[in-house]
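CATEGORY: protein folding

GOAL: derive structure tokens
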Amino acid sequence: MATHRVVVIGSGFGGLFGTQALRRRKDVEVTLVAKTTHHLFQPLLYQVATGILSEGAISPSTREILARQKNARVILGTVVAIDLDAKTVTSEVLGRETVTPFDTLLVAAGAGQSYFGNDHFAEYAPGMKSIDDALELRGRIFGSFEWAELATAPAERDRYLTFVVVGAGPTGVEMAGQIAELAHRTLRRDFRAIDTRQARIILLDAAPKVLPSFGDRLGGDARERLTKMGVEVVLGTKVVGVDSTGIDIETPEGTRDRIESATKVWAAGVQASELGTMLAEQSDAELDRAGRVRVNPDLTLPGRPDVYVVGDMAALDNLPGVAQVAIQGARYAAKHLKARLDGKPAPEKFSYFDKGSMATISRFSAVASVGKLRFSGFLAWLLWLAIHIVYLIGFKQRITTLLHWMVSFIGRGRSERTVTAQQILARNIIRSIPPEDLPKLPVVESDHEPAPAPRTDDAAEVERVG
């Protein structure tokens, strides 16, 4: 029986859980193509940015996770082309291209930060979608306190001690809360020329509510808690400009104003992977406003029953862009594929089971929406801790995370406060390099020699007997 080749794009929740769901199929060969060597537990990125966790605690090696899955292979590279007719995926890393054929394709490339057509904002207001984002923000946040310590003019000191978080969804609320805890609790004894408790933390959003997806009561609870922590919540206000020293805003009345701030965090809006456009151009699929692919009820691409799209890339029934949608979608796609390979009836259309939503505000305080239940405070925080430990991949990561949480939540320290100028500057410098000047893998003459043709069993037997 010929081996069925499955290519999975992305090592996030959708890609990883989809790959693992096929682990018992000896007739399936899975190739996971990803642009990073790790699986990222994105919900805890803000804790890397604020010094609670190390990047390794939330990003275990993909190869290590899949080491015992004999039918799975991992390839490092950014997908630059998908040919649905030829059934190939082309990936590239440091100038080297790899073409991988497939019989079935599972696309789970996730989403990036959306700046709503103002991508130049990213230079001064990093998002929260990758380890690089988190490390850059860690450098900017802790660096701002260091620069404030050196400031000689009050205006300069105030600019460094003003932090603006754009976006009042879960990520923005969590970031604003943690920066407030840094300023008012963790760092308050560490400096001599400044009082970190005088830091100004602003949570800004064009929407009229905090945590709108959680409902009015929980959103109100979150806003009240943030206000008590010293966070200024500014709603109904648009961002119209961002530069190195501040952020320009437009108030609900239509007037323009400016906030002087050295550190800005962008936590508003997401944009699906550009691979969605590539898929739509080769199929009957359409894209929604966020660039997500409108898929069939069985998560297949319209006109392409051999291509599944899951997670943040898929648009179906207004499903939220959360980890559980990606996990359940990937497992459903694997189940659907296995039924097809076995010649059995396909399962019913994909149905998402909502396990609830949670967001932390500060230590010992969170909000949770589980089914019809809505609650906040310490109980919600305990539930948040338990759920996140359960979904962390790997025993080492769970133990490490628990130890770091004990240091940060019971004590007042942050164990991951190391920052370098490289973390802050490197990505923007790399972005300025022309594509033709970017570093590439070294090539020597022997690298161009064709690989030997595979031997047939008969040829191998003749060689062995000879």
The mean pLDDT is 92.
